[in-house]
Amino acid sequence: MVLARGLSKTYRIAEKQPGLQGTIRHLLRRRYRDLDAVKAISFGIQEGEMVGFLGPNGAGKTTTLKMLSGLIHPSAGELRVAGAIPQRRQPGFLQDITLVMGNKQQLIWDLPPWDSIRVNAAVYGIPEREMKRRVSELADLLELGEELNRPVRKLSLGQRMKAELLASLLHQPRVLFLDEPTLGLDVTAQGRVRDFLATYNQRTGATILLTSHYMGDITALCERVLLIHEGALFHDGPLDALTSKLSPHRQVRLELHQPQPREAFEAFGTVESHQDHQVQLLVPRDQLTDSIAALLSRFEVLDLEVNDPPIEELMRSLFQQAGRN
Hints:
With 325 residues, the protein is of the alpha/beta class. The protein has helices spanning 19-28, 61-68, 91-96, 113-123, 128-142, 157-169, 187-204, 215-221, 239-246, 288-298, 311-324, and strands at 2-15, 31-45, 50-54, 76-81, 97-101, 175-179, 207-211, 224-229, 232-238, 249-256, 270-275, 278-284, 301-307.
C-alpha cells in the first residue's frame, strides 16, 4: 500500500550573518547551503498495517508524511501510495488518503464541526444521506454527540481532535497518515483516540502510519516501528524485538513482609530503588527465572511484578546512540 525507495528531500537554504553588514551581504551576494531533511530512506507498508514512525524533533518525520501525502515533491527516489504517485495529486489518490496533523486544524473556528463536515462531503461528492450515515457511525465510535453542533472554539482540545478525525475520515480513506494526533491531549482523551484508531483499523482494514511523541500511542497500537534520526532510517522492525535488543534486563519490583537491607538484594541484580518494604531490581533476562525463584525462597514476598524498563528511556538511549554514530 505504501512503498518508498531511496526517498530523499533536500532544501536549499539562504544563510545570513547577523547585523547590518550581514544583511547587506545577504542582499548583494546571497549564500546558500543544502539541508538534507530526508536521506534516501526505503520502506514498505502492507495493506491494513498500523506502523509507528518515531524520531526526535527535526528528524524528518513530518517531511516524510508530507511527501507521502503529495504536499511536497521528493528531491530523489521512488514513491507509491495506494498505487499512485503522490505528488501528482490525482483525484483517485486524494480519495484514498488522509493526513491528520495534531498541530493543524481544518475545522472552521467559529462554526460547528457539522458545517465543516458538510463542506468536506461536498468536496468529495458524498450524497446527503450517505454523509449522515457515515457521520453517525464515526460519531458513535468517537463518542461525539452534541459537540458537533457547538462552535469549534467552545470545544475542549480532546473534542476538537475527535471532530478533526471525523471530518478527515468522512470520505473513507484507505491510507491514514497521522502526525501527532494526540498532541496536547490529556491521558483520558489520548486513550479514547487510541481506542478509536484501533477499532477503525480493525473494522475497515485501513493502513495507518502514525507519528507520536507519546510512546503509549505506539505501544498500544503498533506492532512495527520505523525509527528515523537526522533524516536517515536506522530501524524497521517489530517493536518487541527492538525492546529486547535495547534492554537485556527486566525490572523486578518486590513488596516484602519485612524490610530487608539493601545489600541482601545486590546478588540478584542492580538495585534501582530500596525503601522500607519496597525494592526494585534490574535483572538480566537470561537470569530472570533463577533470580525470581531465589528471591521467593529467601524472602517473604507479598507481591512481585516483572516489567520491561520504560520504553521512553530505551528510545531516548537509542536516538542518542544514533546521534553518536
